[in-house]
Amino acid sequence: MKKLTLLLALIAVVGLTAPPARADTMTCKAEGFPGYCLETLPKLHCCSAAFLGWSEIVVGDSFPVAGQVARIEGEPSVTGLRIEYPSGQTVSLPVGADGRFREMVAFSEEGVYRLLQITGDRTIEMGSFDVAYRAELVEGMLVESQFGAQHGRNALTTAMILADQPAALRVRFTNAQGEPVRSQTLALGFGEQRFTTDAEGMATITYDPGEKSDYQIERLYPGLALISYREISVDGLGRVSGLPGGEVTAVRENGRWYFPLKAFLEAASPMRFRDQVTWNGETRTVRVDGISIMIDTGLVLGYPDFRSDLWVLNGSTYMEMHSLIRLMDQLGMAQRTGEFGFRLSLAQEP
Questions:
Q1: Are the C-beta atoms of residues 23 and 34 closer than 8 Å to each other?
Q2: How many CA atoms are closer than 13 Å to the CA of 251, on its beta-carbon side?
């Protein structure tokens, strides 16, 4: 099976043509982009945030799309906006003299919608956004069940799979009214894969990680993502297994396991941490990915700060297992699974 490719462009705002507005030209404070703001959905995403983001509009939704267009001194006024459906039908949103717009829109189709502005006789595409069915994971593990509710994200269902392992996820697709999407091939697959539902609105989404890497993160469908994790364990001899960069050796002291900090981080994610763990001799601080660890006090300056259990042995810094798991949960996601093991994910959005 070919490695599944990512759909980044579908939800990114492409070609922002309106110049930035002066702060006193707009009263609307909602999210938007230069020269515009939206008080309602669609939620427009830009840059890397678009990877797992989407419009948050479900097929069958109907609501007023409202917001404001900035008036730029010396520039022609925008007289209207237009939303173009995947089928080609359109809805017009007139823009008033004060720059405001509000129009009821029924999002009845799945797929990519275009947002356009009208200025005089010119029509300019401002961007695009997805309208999708609601995806509910029926068979598979959610990020909240593996790593805690703090790692959940509004409007996003995130499945967890073991790293480097193929997976098959059972997903139920429903519309905004909760009705199953029966016997339909969905438009918003990715790569060459499309999902076809059965009579109950169920579909199986298969995933093959292809070439191995530290961790995988994929956008399977708008509102549905996949993240891989690894099971880390330490045996009676202190050998730590499950790390993509190979084994490291922990030390037992007073009934607790201490892990060599630098060696563990670089083995936990060679692509991310190799040569990125730095030492400041003046402040006696280890710094990694924006987090500072003060060796003399054990204080970890992250978010939130906490005091760790450190041990310096033969010039190397070792961190006790419970403290290490807490640190890794700030750098990614980590959860203890028992006395001698924990699960770990360090997947990063592109």
A1: no
A2: 14
